[in-house]
Amino acid sequence: MATWLKDAIFYEIYPQSFYDTNGDGIGDFNGITAKLDYIKSLGCNAIWMNPCFDSPFSDAGYDVRDYKKVAERYGTMEDIENLFAEAHKRDMHILLDLVPGHTSEEHAWFTESKKAEPNEYSDRYMWTDGWLCGGAGLNYIAGESPRNGAYIVNFFKCQPALNYGVLNPTERWHKSMYDPACIATREAMKDVCRFWLDKGCDGFRVDMADSLVKHDDENKSGTVAVWQDILGDIHAEYPESAFVSEWGKAEQSIKAGFDMDFYLDWMGNGYNSLVRDYEAHLNAFASLPESLDDSTENNSFFKADSKGTCDHFIDEYMGRYEQIKDKGAIALITGNHDTTRISYGLSEDELKLAYAFLLTMPGNPFIYYGDEIAMSFRSMASKEGGFTRTGSRTPMQWTSGDNMGFSSAPADKLYLPVDPAENAANVEASEADQNSLLNTVKTLTSLRHSQADLLDKSNLEIISRKPLVYKRGNLLLAVNPKNTDTQSRKLAELTGDAKVIYSIAINGTQPGIADGVITLPTQSFVVISC
Ligand code: NOJ
After folding, report:
1. pTM for the structure as a whole
2. Are 406 and 395 in contact (CB under 8 A)?
């Protein structure tokens, strides 16, 4: 595993919306370079940048037209190489976003694959063998090309699925995952990885990593085998490269060779029960109201006045954690470009406690740009395939000045409108306010970097659930996110040597330890060295 991962805290950047340096209304590579010192000041020493490759942007760049070319809107190859170099100078690392399961329908491979005449790329994608032949359980598009077949899609219509084969072919058009054409797809993806690692990136976040082998791969043994091959080679050639999967089942992804897997809630793993447990908003696929008002039932554990517990999360998380803790990691996120902003359902005070938890758990945490200042989720028209997700992809708010410091372009030329609210959060104001969420994030990240026990990924023990008390080596951590009651508990770990090394007391009363009992006033968090 890459040595730099040990104390990496990631910052996710949606490049369109981060910082525009050439005044065209859209963020660019030079904008990220210009803000590296800010990111570092937050305590984040690693970046995941959403796709930045040549693309028609029908799915915000997750529809890649050329894996080896940067999208012009972000700058040049020199600019991105400079970004890598400047990051490395600051001891920071950058993951690009690898989209291995599909390309854009405008990719040259697909242009060839669509042709009626057989050619080198005919089997690069999954095609049925008849013009109106269904996908045998897989989503397909027919009638779009002269080829006598329909193609399987991985996501949107514009994203034809690359062909990694199937475990046990049952249709005439199925190819075995060991067919030379499917092996060629894997080799093409290794080639993309090598290309960017040679340019200076430090690894990849991998999109829909579990989606490669289709049809009968329910337990993912086929997809795991494909990744073992790809990552086996790449890790051997680039031992300091890191790979993070969008998979949702760490026990499979780590076996596949990933360094870590995101803890995403598609499969009901309890993540949303912590911070996004409100009806109809459990994912970003539904339509959302402008804001969550008091009439909305919000059962999130970190909602101060909710009855929500951490049970669902702990039950699910610990099962997965125990299986992978010695081999890889689970990455907890504040949110990402697909989720509603975490601030949609939680206030800044509630976020302080939620971040305290997320930033002190094992595995590498990910902060989504703007979540450090509680940027708002806003309902807005879809942009580039974002649909509801667009509301979490708006321009970063740097200052209270024009376009909130994001760009010097006229407001109507911006990628998305900046937050029109008079009191919209911004970095400048947050930095100046000692009590801001941003400054709490900074103290939490520096706590994490300074405590070896917080960096160890295999030492988590849950001691109690109410209050939530967890142990990381010689550190005992506890949180009471509720504003309803003080929570206390006798703990064998609290010997005479125990001392508080960090605390958050939203309502002014500090957590305490006395006579072996931990007391957590309403809305408080504490770290105790034992
Ligand atoms: C997951 C990505 O996070 C999402 O933004 C994208 O639309 C789909 N995969 C398809 O690539």
Report:
1. 0.98
2. yes
